[in-house]
Batch of 2 targets.
Target 1
Amino acid sequence: MRKFQPNILHGALTGLLLTIPLIGLFFVANQLAGTPYVPFDLFEWLARILPGDLVVFGIDTMVKILTFFNLSIREASKPAEILLALGQFTAIGVVVCAIFYFVLRRWEKIRKNYFVGMILGVLAGIIFLLISFQIGKYSVAAEISALWILLLFILWGVCMQWVYQKLSPAEAPEAAAGEAGFEMQQIDRRRFLVMLGGASAAITVIGAGLGSLIDTEPAQTAAGGEGEAIDVNEPEPQTVTLPERPGAVEPVAGTRDEYTPLEDHYRIDINLSPPEIDGATWRLPIQGLVNNPLTLDLNDFCQQRFGEPMHLFVTLACISNNIAGDLVSTTRWTGVPLQRILDEAGPLISARHLLIEAGDGFYESVPLELIRSDERIMLAYMWDGKPLQPEHGFPLRIYIPDRYGMKQPKWITSFELSAVDQPGYWVERGWDRTAQMKATSVIDVAATDEVIERGGQQYIPIGGIARAGARGISKVEVQVDDGDWQEAQLRTPLSELTWVLWRFDWPFEAGEHTFTVRCYDGEGEMQIAESHPPRPFGATGLHDVDVNV
Ligand SMILES: Nc1nc2c(c(=O)[nH]1)N[C@H]1C(S)=C(S)[C@@H](COP(=O)(O)O)O[C@H]1N2
Ligand SMILES: [Mo]
């Protein structure tokens, strides 16, 4: 009689069938009670501790794949990261269980001792518990979080061993001798695995379904919420009206929105789920080299302790954006000039840098000299006339004109004035220290079906955007094939801090053509024409499109 013992493949399959429902259980409890969502915590933790080069390589690869499949980076990057996070966690479960079965197969003595599966569960539980505590995204007591994680992993470990037993001949009913008996067992094993698969799917589906239905209590981040609860008086949401610009050049239909609808504003940060900070207990300490250390709360901002708020139309862009990418958006920011707040804190003469920490472990620094030289640097608490959304940095983020997003922390939890600089999160991972926005221009549309007739000549409108941080745009030019550069018309921008929409009405000529665009910033400096990928200074190069008309 052939003797059957589960092997590595059975282990891998069991790992899969047990780890997926484990994710479902972590998810539903996270949504219901605010316990840690361990697979996300693992992903975020790895992204923070792995070497910068490796992380950037990972991000680049993801962007390349998404671009290959023609997916919008803005829309697809978070879902792709979520898939990666779940896949990674599942893969770990599969590998661990495969190894576990390998060991059990070799080592008969421990096969029947459930203590072994339990110890494996405890070990895994402790590791993941430490990781989740590092990330700190849970809103129930730490003890409950710890217990929950341990419990589920112990269950997971014991189940692995239990399944091994069920698959082994000793546990199979009537170990009848001979080939027939062997086949019997094989059929039983199959039936058992199918049942296990069914149970696994059921738990997963119920967990995922329940979890997404009951997303009422978002897990609040422990960070930044050490204060006593106050009643926050948030200002009434306002409808933002765009400045009147009589006679301004009309954008070509098909050009992106001049003012990005808030729900379409790109989002980039190191989190899968944004830190959810409780506005009532949030405090902002301003300490270090100051005469008068302060601790601010949200009402200090909402109720204008520092005077009238400032409103600015701002185009924010991510340094990882490709020339024609969609990680750039425009909305109206409302906040308090940072100068006013620092004046009250009174930096000592020795203070040189403002070190900023955020609720997700992100950090950056700003030279005091820069803050003193630019009134527009602000602490923003509203976007588009509403309190900041959780994913865009509630309750407070900083705005620094002319810098890429990586220099501008969201979810700010503390300020320290320091004599020495401390390079920011992405600076430490190889990105440019200054991160000044590059001048770039993009063709959004060549409206080949929108022919304009003027004086017997047919024109095709071509349109897009140009931007140069806070330096403004003085000129945009379009080149058709190898022809001369011709000046486009510029629409008056929403502010000196936003992109400029441009249009060029091109005298129509049938055939295949290449259109190229370039811009000049407010100081008359032409954009860098040489193509360079985003890392480390922000992408440069000219954008062109091929059109058949
Ligand atoms: N705390 C924190 N702030 C952050 C980040 C982050 O990961 N954590 N990402 C930065 C980057 S890289 C960009 S491009 C902008 C994006 O802001 P948005 O997501 O609101 O558009 O946030 C910046 N601020
Ligand atoms: Mo970014």
Target 2
Amino acid sequence: MLKKNRLFTPGPTPLLPSAQVAMASYGAHHRTADFRTLFARVLADLKEFVGTQNEVLVLSSSGTGFMEASVSNLTSPGDKVLVLTAGKFGERWISLAEAFDCNVDVLSAPYGSTFSTEEVKKRLTPDIRCAYVQATESSTGARHDVEAIAKLVRAMPDTLLVVDAITGLGTTHFDVDGWGLDMIIGGSQKALMIPPGLAYGAISERAWQRMETTKSPRYYFDLRKERKSAAKAETAYTPATSLFAGLAAALDYVRQMGDGNLAAGRKALVDNAEMCAAMTRAGVEALGLKLFSPRAPAAALTAVAAPAGADSTAICKRFRDQFGAVVANGQAEMKGQLFRIAHIGYYDYLDTAGVLAALEQVIAEVTGKAVEFGCAVKAAQEVYKQRVASSE
Ligand SMILES: *Cc1c(COP(=O)(O)O)cnc(C)c1O
């Protein structure tokens, strides 16, 4: 059979056609009025997409570049920082903070779970300069309670809170300013529906003040320098210009989703991810499979434990070979134990129903056990029907 290549991965995600067209045709030089107009528009729209009054900057790098910037710009060597980790992306915070010689305190929760507010409260001491967390841990499919964590951090006058929302933005509701998030970070290849290569972040006034005194080395990711350039509608170095053209088209699309209102479009995009996630969870459970993060599942992706006796590597391979579907395996030591289906950005009802139908086939073949075809799809349809009825 014909196989369309489709991404179900938590980044990169399916590309928005109008953004692809915009990228393919964009050829302006970055020191021109044309680019400055595009750049200023993207920065203003991103503020609305993030939902903040704080300044938003964009870096030409993958998401990790902005994560690095949040460490190099906000810390000095020897600073005590607290990393909240429950997965591979949380562990990235530890490596980054160590690379910049921070004194790293770690609160970890087992893979597939999240932190209790009590534990976080106990570990937050006034000498912690920065706390780092993920909004959604893409390696396990867990969602962390950013609002509750922010409430605790805000009680500490000298502690900044940095949130890796690279898969969280566009799949999760945040009140960035109301909760007092000092830095919230996103990436272009997630809910913004364009290829990898841009990272963005919103930066609080407290964080800007911190940068006046911090001493960690930085050059390409010097946020104060980017801020100065952005004030003139420019970037400090050559930006990934075509990605900016794609980003502008993607933000227009989100605005259309909100009937001309970008904030409403962002909410619609989040609700879409929530719907696809709820349908996927119901389908997976109807097949008798177990969620890897059952207690706090993210809307960004659904991580599913490999059924007893089966290896998720074989499941992912089957998806790809038979249906052209790229489903993500577990990362590092979780490889073989789980597979991940994302519902981020340009992803809809038919994608959800299709991947569940394929999952029924794949599970039947990989486990050799009888599967009642249609059971996962049916469960998803029921969820859809109920949710649509209750929102009317
Ligand atoms: C994708 C992702 C990142 C960033 O990874 P890059 O490959 O650098 O773009 C960071 N954190 C989370 C939670 C992610 O999902």
